[in-house]
Automatic annotation (TrEMBL):
UniProt source species: Bacillus inaquosorum
Source domain of life: Bacteria
Reactions accelerated catalytically: sn-glycerol 1-phosphate + all-trans-heptaprenyl diphosphate = 3-heptaprenyl-sn-glycero-1-phosphate + diphosphate
Pfam families linked to this entry: PcrB (PF01884)
Record key words, sorted: Lipid biosynthesis, Lipid metabolism, Magnesium, Metal-binding, Phospholipid biosynthesis, Phospholipid metabolism, Transferase
Protein name: Heptaprenylglyceryl phosphate synthase
GO molecular function terms attached to this record: metal ion binding; transferase activity, transferring alkyl or aryl (other than methyl) groups
GO BP term, example: phospholipid biosynthetic process
Length: 38
């Protein structure tokens, strides 16, 4: 989820959303936005 990705982004250089792009595109976009700090 987006909150978890945001927490991991503090410690990682890369966050992989994997199949979320195909299975739940809106959720994948929220994850990317959270990592980017938007």
């Amino acid at each position: 989820d987006a909150e978890t990705a945001k927490q991991y982004a503090e410690h990682a250089d890369v966050i992989v959303v994997g199949n979320a792009v195909y299975e739940d595109f809106d959720r994948a976009l929220k994850t990317v936005a959270a990592v980017k700090g938007e």
